[in-house]
Amino acid sequence: MxxxxxxxxxLIGNVYICCRTxxxxxxxxxxxxxxxxxxxxxxxxxxxxxxxxxxxxxxHSGFQRILACIGTYWLGILLYIIIILGAVELxxxxxxxxxxxxxxxxxxxxxxxATGLICIAAIAFFCIWGIISxxxxxxxxxxxxxxxNGGKLxxxxxxxxxxxxxxxTVGPRMIQQxxxxxxxxxxxxxxxxxxxxxxxxxxxxxxxxxIRILSQLRSKYGTYxxxxxxDTDEKILAGFTFPSKEKKTSDPRMDDFLQQAGIRLINEETxxxxxxxxxxxxxxxxxxxxxxxxxxxxxxxxDNLDISKPVIVVEHEPKFLQALADAGIDLHLCGxxxxxxxxxxxxxxxxxxxxxxxxxxxxxxxxxxxSGVGLFGPNMRVGTKSExxxxxxxxxxxxRQIPCR
Length: 405
Known about the structure:
alpha/beta; 11 helices; 12 strands; elongated; Metallophosphoesterase_sf; hydrolase activity; Calcineurin-like phosphoesterase domain-containing protein
């Protein structure tokens, strides 16, 4: 639905940017004002603007893959063209309306050229920053305490990742970084909080290589995953899906991929790990997937559990935190938000989510949301980071200790 709404705005915006850029180029020199150069620029710009749509409608091929990769970079570049050009145009309009600056000055050729150069420098700065930030996976550490009996465990070392978005933009290089950072921490358990794939399984360039890399993950209790809203078999346009009455489920190849990589999918499933803590995997609310019509509510999750043991819930979206806290869940682990991924969405994200990223204490429940490893839409991160989260969980006491009374 969002893709349908944004399509006409995308078209209008690109036409305006193309015309405004041609106007600036014509002011710069006689060469750039010639019809041959203008035609070349229009063709090049049109190709970039249409790369996203062409990649969507063309069948899978090497050329289609190139278009898709170009489109992800173009989305980020276009975002900052719109933001910076929009800000400059707004300032110019305010100065004109308030008569702060004479109209002759605002329309002066040299000032027009200088303003354009400043815009180009600012756009280049944000885009280069975003592209570099996107390809480097970092580590984030948390240390928390759960006031319950940890059974056989005094502490639990959790590695949490989410939003891998395996596909056109995320491949073996980034996933190898992720695996290396996880294994370096020697975790007890590895949890993947959804959006492992980027909807289209065929977008993965080399699934066998990714399976080989993910098979290198090492932990005491294994690797567990839930699916997110992008772990479904449907094509996406600029990161957005189209409305459909048909229930969306994962491509069977996604399930096989996880199995071959040694990753256990826990969809609406509760496991008692080492007779010490519960691990609950929830289906995604938006796309619950195959075999799930209605997912359990927080209270149903806790039914028939020994509430003296720690309860860790992993799901994709960080929703309904109060209901989860009221039900008695101890630790809630999610992804989905990307922490906004790019400026200024990282600030707007805080208006949408109670915990957009990081740590939040909700009554007796602790919530940790990761900004994710991969990318949604633009192949950039500005003001956010691709991360692997390490959580050192301390328990109040274990079965090897005598609790204080």
